[in-house]
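User: Sequence in, structure out. Go.
Assistant: Echoing your sequence, followed by the structure tokens.
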Amino acid sequence: MVTATTPGLGTREQVRSRKLDEGESVDYKTLDIANPTEEHAMLREMVRDWVSSEVEPQALEFDRNEVFNLQLLRDMGELGLLGITAPEEYGGAGMDALAATIVHEELSYSDPGFALAYLAHSMLFVNNLSRNGNSTQKQEILPKVCSGEWIGAMAMSEPDVGTDVMSMGTTAQQRDDGNWVINGRKMWITNGCIDEEGTPCDVVWTYAKTGVKENGRAEISTFMVFADSPGFSVGQKIVDKTGMRGSNTAELVYDDCVVGPDSLVGECGESMIHMMRNLELERLTLAGMSLGIARRCVKEMNRYATEREAFGRPIRDFGQIQRYIGQSFAEWRGMEAYLYNVARQMDVEQSGNRLDSDGIKLVSTTLAKDIADRAMQVMGGYGYVGEYVVERLWRDAKLLEIGGGTLESHQKNITNDLAKDSSILG
């Protein structure tokens, strides 16, 4: 029970007003968990305005034609968003995980497919390099990817390997001259190609097997492979996707692909460290995409239920429609609170929040799909056609249950982590 002077907490006024930054305090009752600082609120307002004027008008066309809007992604460099978590000294914005979550939520409110391309560039490549590259690699590459001059991607999955990363077949062998020769294929790579001609992106964060450790497990290492690296090419652009059609997905081919010794990131065998550092932020921002989908779907079904009449009354007067809207609203608000609480605590410099990064992605991705489904149900035939947005969001939402970790992998991780430490449960 909290009293006026509870030991360890101080007075009630001290409990209610905690220091956020030096010289700044906030009343917990007025704190906006999704915009905890003025900087976060300004970022959201800026991105929301830009999405409304630039992203929303093109979303349907690029989804329908299954084309990636490359120039629009490059334009985000001028806004300082492509390096949202990268250090300012390299051209980034130097912001935190919560800021990255805001950008992904706002983009996905209009165009999750485009948001996925942004995530592959800014989180899977730029943030990875920012956290794990050496000073020379950062100096040479980060300014180009933060500005939009270069487009990046990350390649881990293969035709026969997904969640079981240690079983990957792509190999890298070092020659006597110090160069590395990479052989293998990567599959389902967002931004792997950047146009309809199959042009590869400028640089790919590539995982490859470089040996076997003493314990018999594969030694996985990280390399940066460039568009002009000999032996590197796009095998195919993946077409006829159910959703996320506004982003390009490709198969990448490494056929005696040669990269220099300076393309190795860190030391041999450090890839698992790189993955763990970045996976938590990836899962958080994928959950942010889910939140954007859910918020838009709630808005669309609420608007439609007010405008559409049946039997002489707005359909929002009918109990079943109220169930769809009420349930969806409550789930969206629950997602938002969990998401931004996890984002607030996440440190982009290190791993350590796997339990909740798995948890928020597990719950939010499925809820986004369910809310989109209800929105289609409320809107009937109109919800089933592309012009009314929710059909596209419904298709896009499914991938979020697969990419960045399947639902089953999150369930396994959460259960295993709670077995090791259940202190969070009290």
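User: And one key feature?
Assistant: The first strand starts at residue 5 and ends at 6.
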